Amino acid sequence: MTPTDRSHPAPRRVRMEEVARVAGVSPATVSRALKSPETVSERLRARVQEAAARLGYAPNRIAGSLAGARTPLVGVIVPSLTNSFFAATLDRMTTILEAEGYQLLIGQHAYDAAREERIATAFCSWNPSALVITGRDHTRGTVGLLSAAPCPVVEMWDHDDRPLDTGIGFSNREAGRLAGRYFAEQGFDKVAYVGAILGQDARARARSQGFAEQVRHLAGQDPLIADAKSRELGEGAAALRQILQRQPDTRAIAFSGDMLAVGAMFEAARMGLRIPQDLAILGYGDLDIAAHTNPPLSTIRPPHDEIGAAVARHILHRLAVPEAQSENVDLGVRLIRRLSA
Amino acid sequence: MTPTDRSHPAPRRVRMEEVARVAGVSPATVSRALKSPETVSERLRARVQEAAARLGYAPNRIAGSLAGARTPLVGVIVPSLTNSFFAATLDRMTTILEAEGYQLLIGQHAYDAAREERIATAFCSWNPSALVITGRDHTRGTVGLLSAAPCPVVEMWDHDDRPLDTGIGFSNREAGRLAGRYFAEQGFDKVAYVGAILGQDARARARSQGFAEQVRHLAGQDPLIADAKSRELGEGAAALRQILQRQPDTRAIAFSGDMLAVGAMFEAARMGLRIPQDLAILGYGDLDIAAHTNPPLSTIRPPHDEIGAAVARHILHRLAVPEAQSENVDLGVRLIRRLSA
DNA sequence: TCAAGTTTTGAAAGCGCTTTCATATGCGCC
DNA sequence: GGCGCATATGAAAGCGCTTTCAAAACTTGA
To answer: φ, ψ for residue A29 (rounded to 5)?
Structure first.
């Protein structure tokens, strides 16, 4: 059975025609009274609205969309729903867009490019008002699809030169550089970086590259880099042990995720290391937990919810003002300085 | 401008009729060749599929849905996207449903019942294949809407006697009871509970009630209950101080959230209390962090992702087997015993 | 070979709205 | 009071597909 099968037949709902009959007007008037009340006389508008309310009329958006050539749907594709960064972005987006009558169609691809393309294809066939996709790295097919899409397309989270249409994000490389620069400013000589260097997460890789680049540039040496297989606490603890073994006099470590950093802080406490006196620790993400560790974790904060808000507002603007242009905005990252570094 | 406005005119896409012309068949045959290939002769099917591929034809789902009377859309309403429990549920649901060609329409109401009703109304007007809503507590309007919905309706996360249609969840009260029972079994006499007793979160309240009920029943005394205004680390630390002040010989504390518990563990470490020797701590949620604290946190695990999987499978079953019945399933909670209690 | 199936195919009727276009209605003014 | 204009309303034509129904094309068995 396919999704559009008819086997669960719908008891017929109230249709516009019925409202029209009850209100004693034509369906056209009902449509106008409901969608653009200002074009209908006071008297009829009241009659129609009352009839609609009395019958419990809910317009069929499918029909409306077919006739209207565009749906109040915004398709959003993220790698994962459980990643709290994307969740924060989606949270802001839904809140803003829902208030304007749009609905979010959400798909997740788990970093699988083929799945991303399938979802993008499926979303396009809904004639959405806008399409939002995470990142700048897509299959040829996805790129073709998005380039040809008859609606605004936003690539979010990553910033670089030439988005397909609009780009709203920040530079992960710059986030890494910021950490490197901060360590240099603090005069830390022996530093290290912990992150998923080998995985398929290009964002994490960009951060570690930015860090290494800046350390090399400012301190004239290569930082020690340790790979983390996951972003969980235990992995941070393991990375700390590994780093101290390979470079016992390490003075500061930047982590590619707050959880890794917190794990390392737990481990450091176990080892009797004082933070930040013996070892400075810098996180990335600014999760809720960061403000509440002991000592509170200094961290680099990506603009997760700002991205959601900016994307939503850009879309609303593009849809409201037909001549509005695409944009390419870098929302930047901030270093939240607490006590751990 | 309204969402269905026409001001951003779509460059006309390839339509079924065009595929039909190129393949030299009728539109009806194209429709069949694409949606139910087994009803079309080998020869024509190949011709149609080739023509469709060559033209890059993507069916217009809006039109298909209008004609087919049902959309491959599943509407899901959750209180919050950033809550990792619901995120885990949604994650499983999308993964399973996307694989079968369904798309998720996701709405969040931030615990605002009126907003919930608005979203439910909006979702109904899409003629979804199924509707999923979090919890059992809705406005009259929402209840009416869901009862009349011409599709399967699942109320998830909470379990009780009479769901409107299908219910898939667990009992928060039972989760609280489980904690109380565990403490009694361990022979802890002076116990306490920390949770959002006063907030609008009925689930948290049910857990604290279950806990109190069981302690009263098994230990013959009322536990000390402390309110937590948020679910963050700092609040757990504050609650711990408050409890030890009011009841210095407290032997075990159950928390309504892992983060609160972790915060309390940090604070206990600062105060020089040993866990679990001096004080046993039990969390709720089984977040990733729980397995990695020091000592690892014992906690009660709600079936977050199991709910997602069960809901998705129930929906697929209901849609595939027209005579399938609604269900009411309690997925239960588990006590994950680690070292903190 | 022909009648009686059986399977494939196509024509056409919607699905429930929106929107255009034409008609009706009301208004101000000479 | 009648003319022209602006505004309010209705009729009707789709939007692009699915599905029913009937006709056409094949089978099969006698």
So the answer is: -65, -40
CATH code for the domain of B260 = 3.40.50.2300
Q: Beta strand pairing status for A130-134 and A103-108?
A: unpaired
Task: Say whether residue A82 is in contact with chain B using an 8 A CB cutoff.
Answer: yes
| CA-wise closest residue to A261 among A302, A231, A223, A225 | A231
CB contact under 8 A, B91 and A68: no
Residue A112, CB-side half-sphere exposure with 13 Å CA sphere: 9
Closest CB to A294: pick one of B81, B270, B294: B270
Q: End-to-end CA distance of chain A: give it in Å, rounded.
A: 58
- Nearest partner of B151 among B328, B309, B36, B316, judged by Cα: B316
Residues B161 and B202 in one domain: no
Cα Rg of chain B, angstroms? 26
State which residue of chain B sits closest to A1, comparing Cα positions: B320
- B266-308 pLDDT per residue, tens: 889 888 999 999 999 999 999 988 988 888 999 999 999 999 9
Q: Do A123 and B103 touch (CB under 8 A)?
A: yes
* B292: nearest CB among A68, A95, A233: A233
Confidence at B233, pLDDT banded by 50, 70, 90: confident
The total of structural domains in chain B comes to 3
Domain of A50, in residue numbers = 16-59
- Tokens 């802080």, residue? A265
